[in-house]
Amino acid sequence: MMFRILLKKQFYEIFRSYLYDARRNRAKSKGSIIGMFVLFGVVLVFFAGTFFTMGAGICRPLYDAGFGWLYFCIFGGIALFFGMIGSAFSTYNMLYVAKDNELLLSMPIPVRTIAASRAACVYLLGLLYSGIIIAAGYAAYLIFAGDPKSVAGFFVFILVIPAVVFSLSCLLGWVIAKIGARIKNKSIITVIASVALIAGYYFIYFKAQSLISTLIENAAEYGEKIRGSAYALYVFGAAGAGELVPALICVAVAAALFALVWLLLKSTFFGITGSSASVKKTVYREKRMKSAGAGSALFVKELKRFLASPMYMLNCGLAALFLPAAGALLLWRGNFVVSAISGTEGRFSGLIAVMLCAVICMIGSTNSISAMSVSLEGKNLWIVRSVPVHAFDVLRAKIRLHLLLTGVPALFCAVCAAVIVDGAVYVKILMVVFCVLFVCLDSIVKMFIGLRFAELGWTSEAVVIKQSRCSLICLFGGWGLAAAAAMPYLPLCLFVDPGVYLGVACALLLAGAAVLYSTLKKHGPAMFEAL
Amino acid sequence: MLRIEHLTKKYGDVQAVSDLSLHINRGEIYGFIGHNGAGKTTTLKSVAGVMTFDEGDIYIDGIPLKQDPIACKKKTAYIPDNPDLYDFMTGIKYLNFIADVYGVGAEERQRLIRELGDTFELTADLGQPVAAYSHGMKQKLAIISAWLHSPKLIIMDEPFVGLDPKASHTLKGMMRQLCDEGGAIFFSTHVLEVAEKLCDKVAIIKQGKLIRSGTMEEVKGDDSLEEVFLELEAE
Lengths: 531, 235
Prior knowledge:
The complex is a heterodimer of chains A (531) and B (235).
Chain A (H helix, E strand, L loop, with lengths): L1 H18 E2 L4 E2 L2 H35 L3 H29 L4 H6 L4 H34 L5 H31 L5 H32 L1 H11 L1 H10 L3 H30 L20 H15 L1 H7 L2 H24 L6 H16 L4 H7 L5 H6 L4 H30 L4 H28 L8 H7 L1 H18 L11 H32 L2
Antiparallel strand pairs in A: 1-2
Chain B lengths: L1 E10 L2 E11 L4 E5 L6 H9 L6 E6 L2 E2 L4 H7 E4 L11 H12 L3 H14 L15 H13 L5 E5 L7 H16 L3 E5 L3 H7 L2 E6 L2 E7 H5 L4 H10 L1
Parallel strand pairs in B: 3-8, 3-9, 6-7, 7-8
Antiparallel strand pairs in B: 1-2, 1-4, 4-5, 9-10
């Protein structure tokens, strides 16, 4: 009963922004709600479609060779991996860092019930991510391999994989909580550890494609090897294929892992949430103070806010690392990229400059600092409201941080891209200008999104950063904007010079950014005041 | 110092403050009392420029808040009922932020932070993150930040909540001193004994409407403030 109440509260917090207009103090219109769910549906279909296509390509050859279990081994592994990536980085926040911890702990609610309600959200997030992949994989298998026995395997996987994802995510969250209580600068350390994990993920992801191709080409040889030397993988795949004994083994192992993690979570939850961090107390020693302007103070405040939250950095500012890394990669393996895009006969050589810009813009658009910083003001909003600064100065500080952490890395990456492209100097310059202007436009668009879809009454950052309408719109809106800026060149690439296209696009981006900036200056303060 | 003329604020269909007018002169400590949900916080937030209002005007030192909010805010400081400060900053960084925004010079801020920090016995904790502060420490930090830029008018919502007796006593002395130097204080409280002893004038608000205001003697006569308040509430 209590668990249901807490879970209802968690869901209410997550879905409130989708169903309720806090500013107008009334429920959202049916059209708006339907529109949002349609958007969700499109995202899910796109996500599932990607994996369905992948499954459709590999299931038949594996099934024909008698290695159906290998297909499920691969797909199960992917589902496990994506489930982990989707939930692991937010698990710590979702489990332990909520502003209503004290309130709930003060109530006559068993601690295990509070822990269970938080854990349920972690489980559901893992289920969402891995479940889509599992469903897409089985749909492809049923259609293209036509093996009805695999339906039983679907139920095994949908039971086992989210349970394992949950267990591993919670274990990671617990480790972060334990380490975090003992170290200083834990935000930075968490980010470094997470970035290392992401780097590992991308390494495996890129390697996985060639690995899967090799596996399929030599299914018989590798299949026998896996069965012989990595029997656990075979059991896992066979369980997915619907074989009874492996299925029972997998369910038993997952259940045991789940139970162990739950015991750990239950017994340590109060110790972690109920105690303040044991950071060593530093006695303040007076130093000579320096003064700065209000604009600079607001900017530094935004920067400190960003650096204080691993979740904010990882979900809204990762392009600050990805863009320089991509630039370095281009300098290192640029020739490979160029030849891959331009084709063997160089027919599409004009396309390279624009496509590289598109990729840089796509990466840059994953940053949503200017948008998210509005909601993250939360209950501190009164401070910037009560001090003598123009509301636009507050917004400008947020945009400046976005530009610093996206524009500068994008500039570096664009310069690297320009270096590896064979072309006229003016094309190279336009590539750089295009990327920088795109980031400018993107930062202002996201500022509007942040103001329009602000959520200030959150109890956990995870709700704003990972589950809000704002985050969803920013992610897909940013990609859409990047696609809109570069994709029109695809059908034109054989007839139009890339320099001409980039020149026109730069002019449009500049005009768009100027118009939006002026609109923000005019209407942004009122939107901010109305929050 | 503060002139509120026909202030009206609605939340959807609910009228939180209705046609409220109030004048506060220099040198006055003005108490604002009323039951929960009477409209005190809404009024204080409107005066502080934290919240927009639907009708009426607010003037601070003769400057209209709607037309020139920045000039008004330069003369005021606001302390909310629940000091949600920046958890991600240390106490000293927060004070520096406030000093930068209000344009307080380096030497002046150094002196004031030292003085006010010592007064509230918070100096040693200024290097700690605000997240590690207790409610009372946050309240002290909010008070220091309010006094840091020498405002003419201080707006406070339940300022004594969470303060220890010594800090409460200190705050009362600082409030009086600011008013003696030509400033003004407008604050809400539920502690009627404090209002009775500290305030020069008092206003009672009920369901968004000002039902009585004036000097302490005018409002309470020979009765205690508590008796008058309960009587008015019962009407």
